[in-house]
Design goal:
There is one protein chain. The chain has two domains: about 60 residues, no CATH class; about 100 residues, no CATH class. The protein has a four-stranded antiparallel beta sheet. The protein is globular and about 45 Å long. Strand 2 and strand 3 form a beta hairpin. By secondary structure, it is an alpha+beta fold.
Length: about 180
């Protein structure tokens, strides 16, 4: 089972997009459990936690265009990350930071990473006791001659040396400062 499907089944991911050809077992599992679904396009199907969420999606989605922002929000990604996802401003790709928030995987950006993680904590709290990890990869930003650890991790159950989530966010701000990204 992929991480997105696990996050969906744990309840903190509101919907999951699956491609039957690649996610056959997960696709069949969610179908067998009766989760409502809607085809997003010819290859991907979105599964929802309930009929209300599916109905909201169907009544608010403009199916004549593919709106990355709307689909990203539907999949549970932070609003700021969704807003910047299709930004074509020169240099924006260099600002990306790969994020894993339990089973929600997305790209964030220097300008909004702390807001994204705060939003996720407040809106999509991770369940305790499942060994879930928050991981940020700053590899695109590191000078490996000086910074040998481009990965920051926070285990929701163990805290990885941080007293609390806010201290983890402070560690991210410190990392951004050291990399001169803040």
């Amino acid at each position: 089972m992929n991480a997105d499907t696990r996050a969906f089944l744990s309840g903190y991911k509101p919907s999951v997009g699956l491609i039957r050809a690649f996610d056959q077992e997960d696709f069949e599992l969610l179908e067998s459990k009766g989760f409502p679904s809607h085809p997003l396009n010819e290859t991907m199907t979105l599964f929802f936690q309930d009929e209300f969420a599916k109905g909201w999606f169907e009544s608010n989605c403009d199916f004549s265009i593919y709106d990355h922002n709307f689909v990203g929000l539907t999949l549970g990604f932070p609003p700021e990350a969704c807003k910047h996802f299709t930004n074509k401003t020169p240099g924006i790709l260099l600002e990306r930071i790969s994020c894993k928030y339990g089973g929600i995987r997305f790209m964030s950006y220097e300008r909004c990473i702390i807001d994204d993680l705060t939003w996720l904590r407040d809106v999509r709290p991770l369940p305790i006791g499942e060994g879930l990890v928050i991981e940020l990869d700053f590899s695109l930003h590191c000078n490996f001659e000086y910074d040998y650890n481009p990965i920051l991790k926070y285990n929701i159950d163990e805290n990885n040396g941080y007293d609390n989530y806010d201290e983890f966010l402070e560690g991210i701000a410190s990392k951004l400062s050291l990399l001169e990204l803040a």
